[in-house]
Amino acid sequence: MDIVDRAKNLILTPAAEWDKIAGETHTVQGLYTGWIMILAAIPAIAAFVGFSIVGTGAFGFSYRVPVMSGIAHAITSYLLSLAMVYVFALVIDALSPTFGGQKDFAQAFKVAAFAPVASWLAGAFSILPALSILGLLGLYSLYLLYLGLPRLMKTPQEKALPYTVVVILVGIVLSAIVATLSAFTMPGRPGGF
User: Fold this and answer.
1) What value, to the nearest 5°, has the Cα angle with vertex 81 and ends 79 and 86?
2) What is the 3-state secondary structure (H, E, C) of the chain?
3) What whole-number distance in Å separates Cα of residue 104 and Cα of residue 93?
4) Fewer Cβ atoms within 10 Å of its own Cβ: the N or the C terminal residue of the chain?
């Protein structure tokens, strides 16, 4: 699997790429080492560079997160995002029968691994804090999730939208937990450096 082509195809021709992914065999370890660990590093590294090296500011004032705090935050957010993919796969797999789909952890893990590609790539905008608002382009991952769930989890098309909405709501809760935990490594926060 070529990581650049896979990412490009998921962004530009997602339905065809999901159909291709559905027929592929992947291991959890293989997806982590060949895809997730690489792409999940993009937002963590970009945020470190953006907020600790470049800095942010307005009206003549600028602020940079201290380097050690920035490194701690990058490592924490990176590790938590790796864990979140696995938990997200468990949620996708557990909810599938509720929406008429098949319970299949391997397929659920593929959805959890490939759907966030847009948000991981959009995390690159954090390298320049003034452009970090463009990270909203990562919301395209929600559409990728909507396309991937029925194809891989064999959910009937009429239940694809409710399934996607429930998975997104669980994802929001998981993201809030990750954000809260990673905030503890930032200066000025309880438990921060």
Assistant:
1) 100
2) CCHHHHHHHHHHCHHHHHHHHHCCCCCHHHHHHHHHHHHCHHHHHHHHHHHHHHCEEECCEEECCCHHHHHHHHHHHHHHHHHHHHHHHHHHHHHHHHHCCCCCHHHHHHHHHHCCHHHHHHHHHHHCHHHHHHHHHHHHHHHHHHHHHHHHHCCCHHHHHHHHHHHHHHHHHHHHHHHHHHHCCCCCCCCCC
3) 6
4) N
Q: What is the pTM of this model?
A: 0.87
For the record, the structure tokens of 73 come out as 């935050």
Closest CA to 114 of 182, 48, 15: 15
Look at the block and give the residue holding tokens 């909507």: 146
Condensed to tens digits (0 to 9), the pLDDT of residues 101-158 reads 999 999 999 999 999 999 999 999 988 877 878 888 889 999 999 999 999 999 999 9
For residue 181 the two structure tokens come to 């935990």
**How far, in Å, CA of 120 to CA of 125, rounded?**
10
**CB neighbours of 2 closer than 8 A, spacing ≥ 6?**
none
> What is the Cα–Cα distance from 167 to 114, expressed in whole angstroms?
15
Q: Structure tokens of 137?
A: 């382009």
With beta carbons less than 8 A apart as the criterion, state whether 103 and 93 touch: yes
